[in-house]
């Protein structure tokens, strides 16, 4: 991965490689301007008509350029096993889920999260002890329970195979294996249970930084696109964050 390269540079390099692959060197916008167009869309969540007017192209062209850039960036996002490379027995990660809010109608029941009381997509995040997110999952309908999502993505099994400890909240109770969650109703339990919960919360707290970095991209505060496109957006942003840029 291109560590230290600014996001515009990462996107521009990706676009250049894509154009070479398609043997399509000439476009209305150069690689760098196309990259800025896509980053502006992700960072500010602007409408395509506004983006198009800013660079002097049609709305359809702006949509096509942004769509192409997101596909290219998403293809660079690391997979789960790649993200866990180098970790093993004695290491731990923080796992949690977040809801990417979407504009959906009430009849879209699979996308409605009872926990958050809104429509959206469930994204699982693995964070390092310092809060750095090495991996984001693909997006599942918002109704999906966090533990169900973690199992579907293979997180539990992958960490068990490598003997990596997982720190998670109560939504992951019953996962077993190497997953550690807080004790339930700890106020009614002995003091050492309460101490365990305090230490667990302290170690898991940096994981919130991963969500903070993700939600700095305004497009993920409330997406207006198809739910199928949310996954591509998350993976594209993950690529940019992997290069050392948090929004």
In short:
With 247 residues, this protein is of the alpha/beta class.
Tally the structural domains: 2
Average pLDDT metric:
85
Structural class: alpha/beta
Helix content: 40-55%
Q: What is the number of helices?
A: 10
Question: What percentage of the residues does DSSP assign to strands (E)?
Answer: 5-15%
Q: Give the oligomeric state.
A: single chain
Low-confidence runs: none
Distance between the termini: 18 Å
Mind telling me the C-alpha Rg?
20 Å
Which shape, going by the Cα principal axes?
Answer: elongated
Number of strands: 7
Spell the H/E element sequence: HHHHHEEEEEHHEEHHH
The biggest beta sheet reads: 7 strands, mixed
Any chance you could write out the topology, listing elements then pairs?
Layout: H1 7-22, H2 31-44, H3 48-55, H4 59-75, H5 80-83, E1 92-101, E2 112-113, E3 118-127, E4 135-136, E5 140-141, H6 146-152, H7 155-162, E6 165-167, E7 179-180, H8 191-204, H9 207-215, H10 227-242
Parallel strand pairs: 1-6, 6-7
Antiparallel strand pairs: 1-3, 2-3, 3-4, 3-5
Helix pairs in contact: 1-2, 1-4, 2-4, 3-4, 4-10
Which features characterize this protein?
single chain, 247 residues, alpha/beta, 7-stranded mixed sheet, 10 helices, 46% helix, 13% strand, elongated
Verbal overview:
By secondary structure, this protein is an alpha/beta fold. It folds into two domains: 7-75; 80-224, no CATH class. It has ten helices and seven strands. Strands 1, 2, 3, 4, 5, 6 and 7 form a seven-stranded mixed beta sheet that branches. The two termini are 18 Å apart.
């Amino acid at each position: 991965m291109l560590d230290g390269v600014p996001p515009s540079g990462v996107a521009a390099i990706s676009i250049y490689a894509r154009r070479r692959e398609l043997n399509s060197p000439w476009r209305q916008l150069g690689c760098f301007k196309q990259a800025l167009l896509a980053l502006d869309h992700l960072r500010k969540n602007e409408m395509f008509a506004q983006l198009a007017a800013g660079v002097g192209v049609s709305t359809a062209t702006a949509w096509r350029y942004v769509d192409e850039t997101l596909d290219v960036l998403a293809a660079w996002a690391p997979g789960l096993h790649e993200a866990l490379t180098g970790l093993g027995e004695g290491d731990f990660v923080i796992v949690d889920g977040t809801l990417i809010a979407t504009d959906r109608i009430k009849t879209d029941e699979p996308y409605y999260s009872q926990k958050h009381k809104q429509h959206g997509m469930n994204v699982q995040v693995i964070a390092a002890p310092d809060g750095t997110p090495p991996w984001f999952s693909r997006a599942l309908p918002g109704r999906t329970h966090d533990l169900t999502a973690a199992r579907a993505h293979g997180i539990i099994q992958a960490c068990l195979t490598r003997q990596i400890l997982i720190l998670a909240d109560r939504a992951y109770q019953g996962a077993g294996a190497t997953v550690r969650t807080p004790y339930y109703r700890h106020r009614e339990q002995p003091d050492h249970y309460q101490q365990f919960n305090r230490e667990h919360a302290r170690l898991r707290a940096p994981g919130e930084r991963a969500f903070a970095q993700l939600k700095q991209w305004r497009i993920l505060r409330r997406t207006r696109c198809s739910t199928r496109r949310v996954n591509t957006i998350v993976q594209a942003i993950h690529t940019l964050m992997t290069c050392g840029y948090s929004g």
